[in-house]
Write a structure and sequence with these properties.
Number of strands of chain A: 22
Number of strands of chain B: 21
Largest interface: A-B, 70 and 66 residues
Order of helices and strands of chain A: HEEEEEEEEEEEEEEEEEEEEEEH
Radius of gyration of chain B: 28 Å
Helix content of chain A: 10-25%
Distance between the termini of chain B: 21 Å
Strand content of chain A: 25-35%
Largest sheet of chain A: 5 strands, antiparallel
Number of helices of chain A: 2
Oligomer: heterodimer
Chain lengths: 262, 259
Amino acid sequence: MIRSLWSGATGMIAQQTNLDVISNNLANVNTSGYKKMRADFEDLLYQIDREPGAPVEPDSMLPTGIQVGLGTRVVGTNRLMGPGNIQITSNPLDIAIEGDGFFQVTMPDGTIAYTRDGSWKIDADGQIVTSNGYLLEPEIVIPEDAMEVIISPTGVVSVRLPNQVALDEIGQIELARFVNPAGLMAIGKNLFLETEASGEPILNNPGEEGMGTLLQGALEMANVQVVEEMVNMIIAQRAYEANSKTIQTADELLRIANNLRR
Amino acid sequence: MYRGIYTGASAMLVQEKALDVVANNLANAESAGFRGRINVNKSFPQLLVSRMESAQDAPGLSPSVTPLGDAALNVVLSETAMATRRGPIQVTDNPLDVAIDGEGFFAVQDTAGNTFYTRAGHFSKNAAGELVNADGMLVLGDGGPIALGDAISCFIDDRGQVVADGDVIAQLQIVAFERPTYLRQVGRSLLTATPQAGLPQPTGAVRLVRGALERANVNVVEEMTAMIEVNRAYEMAARSVTIQDEMTGRLISTFSRVG
């Protein structure tokens, strides 16, 4: 059968994936700490019908041969780790990271996950947890009678206790950084897991070696640009349409061929 | 049988292949750095069509041959050439995305040590801190693979210098070929050198666009027009086959009545 039929199909499939990625970006436009993704495409194999340089006549050769490509595919969905906008919320347990680091979170099974979402809560035991109730690592417990929680740019957590002038230091927030943060695996709930592609986490206090400093009372929003996604969506739709036209044309050719013998 | 039937059929086959090429171009209209291909059709060598003179007209002589004129019996797809015009540049703001504004190709290397050339500049760091392309192949600099390590801020500047934490650690290898249309496309946005393309030469002053990607150099309007053209040419060639088939049918039925 005609190769173009399948080439067109690969194009449509690739654009579907593209649209999936775009729609997930748009769906998470208000998710704090969300990092947008981008689908990257590349061409598939080429069928070499005639080698370039094949002899045609004794003293002449084909300059470029006949190479027919077989379509496209998605090579990867690249996560773009650029910073999102910082929104001031004035909530003392909202913390934005100004830099490359990630907060560490202990999952119920004990594995450590990483997140940029700094909307922390306090559970019944006074522990600092994510919106899903997962513990911040290293654990920090806020005393019951604390009147105020103060988090310094370098991650020192202190509280003000009643009838006391000085602040009480109760813990230190530690951040993790990766050589290749785009290689982290997203598991939903704003969490990422370490993979072989991301490399081992490099741990340090905020403010050290590119970890970024903390900003209390603020949240990092998603780094999704709605206009950009909308434009990408239009392009994806048109590319999808063009590929469907290819299939239509291939179908038309086959119909004509079938009608040769009446 | 009639020569024309084969001519018509060969034209149909050529148009099918032409559609294959157009389909691949359209499918890759969103592949960064993709180079489209162009069909080049040629007619078969012209043949001299001749007529046999009856020997009766000139008794004593063997039948002579009188030329009638030229005819091309076939059309063939002789080449698909790589389009070398530049694709549009899209700003992505990804610090390791880079587009070449001008001639030239990035050099990348697979694990077996084979070198490929590409215009797709979506690079990133792997876990070992090396600069790699979207497929994980090592991007080559002047001194081989480029190690960024755990540098905090990395980017590639307008001249192809790789900067990690403020220090220039490498210069991207950007090469040009004497005849780039002769490069072989091997998929995955990669090209390999061929003897016809010449040896890769380092380019002199090259200008890169930082934080941007070169899109495919496919013009959708042109490809759509080509597709319509293919459709109609195929239809016409099919029509010529049908008509000649009908003529042959009429010929056979006429002769059968004589008998």
